[in-house]
Amino acid sequence: MTGLIPEPDGATPLTDAELNGLRLPLLTRAELNLAEAQNIGHAVSWLFSARRPRPESVTTEAWLKNLHGRMYGEVWAWAGQYRTADRNLGVPYWQIHADMRNLEADAHAWLADTTSGRYGNDECAVRLGHRLVVIHPFPNGNGRWSRLASDALVVALGAPRFTWGAGSLIEPTKLRRNYIAALQAADTDRDFAALIAFARSQAYPAG
Question: Cα 57 to the chain's mean position, in Å?
């Protein structure tokens, strides 16, 4: 649910706050979006070109922090480091570490469950990503990171990657609104059906 929203012409200068922590001499949001996309592409290649990991390994706090670092470390000096101030989204900053450790324990419990009521592979992965969005541990990039973490877990469980509507979720389009509505249903009603369906969708309208 985070990420910079590009202006229509993509040439809007970056603010002083946005420039803080940049590793590259970028001047506009369009340049930043491109640099982040390239960095994320390198992380995706690293993640899915290697041997399939064990599900338990991609749900540890250390691995998840490393994933954020790989996604953004070429662009941001703070990649992979938890935020140190409160934002309008996410838990209080001082609570992040405890919540991430609790999520790790919960995820391992989901994976170890052998009862008939255990979560399916898609639900385990989507629940992981949803909790990461709720915690919102990093200064930026939480939405894209949480979705890639969900992808990593579902692939580790032997299923295909999610498609997430087969489009960009950064721009303020109907596709993004559908995604946010599905997240809100999980937040307020504890109903993950819409979010799971969205994660597997490929034809949501993007206009």
Answer: 17
pTM: 0.88
Cβ atoms 33, 6 nearer than 8 A: yes
Average pLDDT per run of 10 along the chain, which is 207 residues long? 39 69 87 94 93 93 98 96 92 98 98 95 97 95 96 97 86 86 91 95 60
**What is the rounded CA–CA span in Å between residue 31 and residue 24?**
10
DSSP, collapsed to helix, strand or coil, labels residue 76 as: strand
Complete DSSP assignment for 12-36: PBPPHHHHTTBSS---BHHHHHHHH
The per-residue pLDDT for 27 is: 81
Q: How many residues in total does the chain contain? A: 207
Q: What is the pLDDT of residue 19?
A: 76
Token couple for 17: 């706050």
In Å, the largest CA–CA distance within the chain is 54
For the domain made up of 16-162, the CATH class stated in words is: mainly alpha
3-class SS shares of the chain: helix, strand, coil, % to 5: 55, 0, 40
